[in-house]
Amino acid sequence: xxxxxxxxxxxxxxxxxxxxxxxxxxxxxxxxxxxxxxxxxxxxxxxxxxxxxxxxxxxxxxxxxxxxxxxxxxxxxxxxxxxxxxxxxxxxxxxxxxxxxxxxxxxxxxxxxxxxxxxxxxxxxxxxxxxxxxxxxxxxxxxxxxxxxxxxxxxxxxxxxxxxxxxxxxxxxxxxxxxxxxxxxxxxxxxxxxxxxxxxxxxxxxxxxxxxxxxxxxxxxxxxxxxxxxxxxxxxxxxxxxx
Length: 243
What we know:
Elements: E1 4-7, H1 11-22, E2 27-31, E3 45-47, H2 52-62, E4 67-70, H3 77-90, E5 94-97, E6 110-113, H4 116-122, E7 129-133, E8 149-154, E9 167-171, H5 178-187, E10 192-196, H6 205-213, E11 217-220, E12 230-231, H7 234-242
Parallel strand pairs: 1-2, 1-4, 2-3, 4-5, 5-12, 6-11, 7-8, 7-10, 8-9, 10-11
Helix pairs in contact: 2-3, 5-6
């Protein structure tokens, strides 16, 4: 009897739970709750945090979870760390469904920084027109560089206006199209793209568009994560569960 908990919030998590449902494997999908209108899913869904490691441990035990799958965003470092600790405490097998990081190809003009504060610091200087493709969680830090015009692409409208004096919000949900992203950058006269190295195909279009337009990209490296077992495709996850 399988009782799988998938920590989601990514395109990969959505695709995975669809396959688990088709296979008839009992699954619950957990969202952090940062998106107001999540897509309908073919499995039961829970929304919100667990209350730290202790809360996740309690949930795994109370619901007799047999397999824990971390399919969160590569920058959800705290949740991933909590999953590793909770799995160690409870003995529940853990597998992370991960995306390989993006790597530059000929024609790319990337400037890598280790984290969000370093990205903010790198924007010191004259005013520019910046596509800030980071989601709403990290906007406040960029108020330290108010001289720029920021184009923000968000899934949901922010609850309060971003603390950026000169900005434009575009509401859209991926996956995105390279031709459309190129048109967007031209229309807004973008001269710099700021991106987290999320990997995967859903948000890669902005990098293809930046390459086509010869625009620089300020690329934020992924946070360090604890050692854990990983898979890069759904077939490997299914083999792990049923093997």
